[in-house]
Amino acid sequence: MIEAPLDVQKTISIPEDHYKVCKDLGVPTAGNAAGNTEDLLNLSGGNFSPAPLPEGFTARGIVALVFSILAAFIGMGVIAWYGASDFPKKGLAPAGTH
User: What is the pLDDT of residues 75-86, one digit of tens each?
Assistant: First the structure.
């Protein structure tokens, strides 16, 4: 949070290459969020956020959820199977000797 924004504006300047990039992209550098310098409350023509997501679950979301749960159960099953398996002991050196 800046305590004295007007003092900061007096001491810091925006580099010219920043203005050039804005000009090349057609982004206004003066006015409000829509680039309106006459009526600062008029935001027509500005950038707005996309429409909200649909309510509830979509078919894609349900399919993704089902496959994620299936993958989780398969993964847990493989871990349990591996942990419960009996390992052959012949040919293994005792712990601490290599």
Answer: 999 999 998 888
